[in-house]
């Protein structure tokens, strides 16, 4: 199981125990699907865990703004991992993105960032350097400290307007709908004859800005009937139900 999905499982079980007092829940490996079998008060459930995938389009196509911020986050993780692998990450590096962009080259961004990090070994503080540019939009990097890590300086967009902020929940609901549809149509999962609890890891890294964003979504009645409960697990360890047939499973 992926680390983020292991995190989602832990978040869900912690929620059951700490928030609603279901300390007696037991869990065992499933048959994929489901990922696990969960037993609470002698009732067995099928526990399926997955990640809500964002709509990220790469290459020469436009990147939706909701997916764009996640794409930048993913590049930053890859840069940090590569720098650690090469043994050149000896300081704190801040990356700021002024986008979104019509085109993005992940390899070019990574290569330029790695080159900057390599050149700034043993240098206490560096200067801003552009590692990607498209018109007046750019991605910049700066060495700012000694702790060996890469820090997200934010995705600052000229298009960040009320219109854009209003579209974020809309696209989030679209991604949720796609995820639910995918699980609903999974033939193997449909053979499971137990109430299905779906735990979804929220990968959107601006969750602090749009907290509990999925509460705004209308769940298709077909999926609401099919799934016994749908739980959202956040990166910070918090979580919440967006659908639940168990009236006692609420804090």
Overview of the structural elements:
The chain has 2 domains: 3-54 and 162-244; 65-156, no CATH class. It starts with a helix and ends in a 7-residue tail after the last strand. Helix 2 packs across helix 3 (106-119). Strand 2 and strand 3 (43-52) form a beta hairpin. 34% of the residues lie in helices and 27% in strands. A 6-stranded mixed β-sheet has the order 1-2-3-8-9-10. A 4-stranded mixed β-sheet has the order 5-6-4-7, with helices on one face. With 251 residues, it is of the alpha/beta class. It has 6 helices and 10 strands.
Order of helix and strand elements from N to C terminus: HEEEHEHEEEHHEHEE
Given as residue ranges, the uncertain stretches (5+ residues, pLDDT < 50) are 55-65, 157-164
Number of helical stretches of at least 4 residues: 6
User: Whole-number average pLDDT?
Assistant: 82
Query: Cα-atom Rg, whole angstroms?
Result: 21 Å
Across the major sheet, the strand order is 1-2-3-8-9-10
Q: Please provide the count of β strands.
A: 10
Strand content: 25-35%
How many independent structural domains?
2
Q: What's the story with the biggest beta sheet?
A: 6 strands, mixed
What is the global morphology? Answer: elongated
Give the proportion of residues in helices: 25-40%
The helix-and-strand class reads alpha/beta
End-to-end gap = 28 Å
List the helices and strands and how they pair.
Blueprint: H1 3-19, E1 26-29, E2 36-40, E3 43-52, H2 65-86, E4 92-98, H3 106-119, E5 129-134, E6 137-145, E7 149-156, H4 162-184, H5 187-190, E8 196-202, H6 221-226, E9 229-233, E10 239-244
Parallel strand pairs: 3-8, 4-7, 8-9
Antiparallel strand pairs: 1-2, 2-3, 4-6, 5-6, 9-10
Helix pairs in contact: 2-3
């Amino acid at each position: 199981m992926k680390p983020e999905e292991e995190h989602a499982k832990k978040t869900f079980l912690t929620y059951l125990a700490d928030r609603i007092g279901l300390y007696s829940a037991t869990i065992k490996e499933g048959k994929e699907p489901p990922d696990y079998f969960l037993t609470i008060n002698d009732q067995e459930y099928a526990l399926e865990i997955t990640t809500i995938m964002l709509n990220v389009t790469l290459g020469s196509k436009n990147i939706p703004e909701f997916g764009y911020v996640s794409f930048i986050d993913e590049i930053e993780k890859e840069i940090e991992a590569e720098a650690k692998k090469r043994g050149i990450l000896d300081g704190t590096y801040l990356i700021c993105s002024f986008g979104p962009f019509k085109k993005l080259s992940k390899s070019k961004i990574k290569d330029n960032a790695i080159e900057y990090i390599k050149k700034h070994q043993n240098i206490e503080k560096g200067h801003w350097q552009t590692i990607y540019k498209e018109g007046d939009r750019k991605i910049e990097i700066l060495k700012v400290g000694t702790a060996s890590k890469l820090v997200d300086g934010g995705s600052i967009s000229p298009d960040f307007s009320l219109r854009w902020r209003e579209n974020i929940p809309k696209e989030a609901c679209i991604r949720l709908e796609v995820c639910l549809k995918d699980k609903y149509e999974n033939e193997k999962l449909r053979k499971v004859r137990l109430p299905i609890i779906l735990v979804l890891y929220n990968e959107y890294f601006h969750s602090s800005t749009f907290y509990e964003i999925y509460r705004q979504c209308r769940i298709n009645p077909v999926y609401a009937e099919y799934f016994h409960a749908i739980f959202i697990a956040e990166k910070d360890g918090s979580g919440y139900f967006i659908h639940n047939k168990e009236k006692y499973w609420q804090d």
